[in-house]
């Protein structure tokens, strides 16, 4: 979709996923927390969220801030929050707001100015409508950010991940890799597909699986998340992507 949108100097990574509820918030926060622990001034941005009210502690912005150990105000991290538990474009419409990609980007400018790089969390997956005429994939392309795909580790993930990767490629979005997430406790469920899913995704997509995040305890915070994430996930391709961008490459 052809829109002329002012160029931003945004550096960062867009964390998308194969579906809603696959672990984008946990992964985005873990990336931000891990990079911040290395001394990088990395922030988080959730351009639009729906389903909860700020103040509940349950919005993605609040969870991102808590898990990444950042002290921004949630209203700044998520400038567009709608309570209705429906796709953001409809939730906005029900509140009388017509979203445009330009407005979404403009609302992120305070964060873009303040941080060296932003870890941006999308809404749902790549084919979620964000505005009347743009999908999440259009938004990622307009932001000129590389994407990371969060995928379930269990049965069904090959199909969802390959579809997501192929859709992003059609939009011209560069994909850094895939992170598999044990949403379900792999030790408690019997899913023999898990052992081969990463390898098959790599083979058919040509993408790199950066690792598999284990099932985490409910009360996880940034202190406990960072060492687990570093042990299981290869952060090098993420660091490299951010370094190239911050050098202006
Ligand atoms: N590795 C994990 N171990 C245990 N629970 C997890 C794990 N990953 C995600 N969860 C839980 O699964 C739920 C969905 O995860 P999360 O909110 O990160 O998904 P999401 O992709 O960001 O969803 P949304 O589309 O709503 O933004 C949350 O309750 C989260 O705490
Ligand atoms: Mg989320």
What does this protein look like?
41% of the residues lie in helices and 18% in strands. With 249 residues, it is α/β, with parallel strands linked by helices. The protein has a single domain (12-246), classed as Rossmann fold (3-Layer(aba) Sandwich). The protein has a six-stranded parallel β-sheet with strand order 2-5-1-8-9-10, sandwiched between helices. Helix 9 (194-205) links the parallel strand 9 and strand 10. Helix 1 packs parallel to helix 2, helix 1 packs across helix 10 (222-232) and helix 8 packs parallel to helix 9. The chain is globular, with a radius of gyration of 17 Å. The two termini are 25 Å apart. Bound molecules: adenosine-5'-triphosphate (ATP) and magnesium ion. Adenosine-5'-triphosphate (ATP) binds at residues 17, 20-26, 60, 124, 181-183, 213, 215-216.
List strands and helices in order, with pairings.
Elements: E1 12-17, H1 24-37, E2 42-45, E3 48-50, H2 60-68, H3 74-77, E4 80-82, H4 88-94, H5 101-107, H6 109-114, E5 117-121, E6 129-131, E7 134-135, H7 136-143, E8 147-152, H8 157-170, E9 175-181, H9 194-205, E10 209-213, H10 222-232, H11 236-246
Bound molecules: adenosine-5'-triphosphate and magnesium ion.
Short description:
With 249 residues, the protein is α/β, with parallel strands linked by helices. Helix content is 41%, strand content 18%. Helix 1 packs across helix 10 and helix 8 runs parallel beside helix 9.
Which small-molecule ligands are present, each listed once?
adenosine-5'-triphosphate, magnesium ion
C-alpha Rg (nearest Å): 17 Å
Count the E strands: 10
What's the helix-strand series?
Answer: EHEEHHEHHHEEEHEHEHEHH
What CATH architecture would you give? Answer: 3-Layer(aba) Sandwich
How many alpha or pi helices? Answer: 11
Strand content: 15-25%
Give the helix/strand class: alpha/beta
The N- to C-terminal Cα distance equals 25 Å
Whole-number total of structural domains? 1
Overall outline? globular
Runs with pLDDT <50, length 5+? none
State the CATH class: Alpha Beta
Largest sheet: 6 strands, parallel
Mean of all residue-level pLDDT scores = 94
Question: Largest sheet, order of strands side by side?
Answer: 2-5-1-8-9-10
Enter the CATH topology name.
Answer: Rossmann fold
**Helix proportion range:** 40-55%
| The CATH H-level homologous superfamily | P-loop containing nucleotide triphosphate hydrolases
């Amino acid at each position: 979709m052809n829109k002329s949108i002012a160029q931003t100097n945004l550096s960062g990574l867009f964390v998308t996923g194969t579906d809603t509820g696959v672990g984008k918030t946990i992964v985005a926060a873990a990336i931000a927390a891990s990079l911040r622990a290395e001394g990088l001034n990395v922030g988080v941005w959730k351009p639009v969220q729906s389903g909860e009210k700020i103040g509940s502690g349950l919005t993605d912005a609040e969870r991102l801030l808590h898990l990444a150990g950042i002290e921004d105000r949630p209203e700044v991290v998520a400038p567009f929050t709608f309570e209705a538990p429906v796709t953001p474009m409809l939730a906005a419409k029900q509140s009388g707001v017509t979203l445009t990609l330009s407005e979404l980007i403009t609302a992120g400018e305070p964060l873009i100015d303040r941080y060296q790089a932003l870890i941006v969390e999308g809404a749902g997956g790549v084919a979620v409508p964000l505005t009347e005429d743009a999908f999440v994939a259009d938004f990622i392309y307009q932001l000129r950010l590389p994407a990371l795909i969060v995928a379930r580790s269990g049965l069904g993930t090959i199909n969802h991940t390959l579809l997501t990767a192929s859709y992003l490629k059609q939009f011209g979005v560069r994909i850094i890799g895939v992170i598999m997430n044990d949403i379900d406790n792999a030790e408690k469920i019997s899913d023999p597909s898990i052992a081969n899913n990463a390898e098959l995704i790599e083979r058919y997509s040509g993408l790199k699986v950066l690792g598999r995040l284990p099932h985490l305890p409910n009360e996880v915070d940034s202190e406990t998340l960072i060492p687990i994430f570093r042990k299981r996930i290869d952060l090098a391709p993420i660091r490299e992507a951010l370094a190239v961008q911050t050098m202006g490459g």
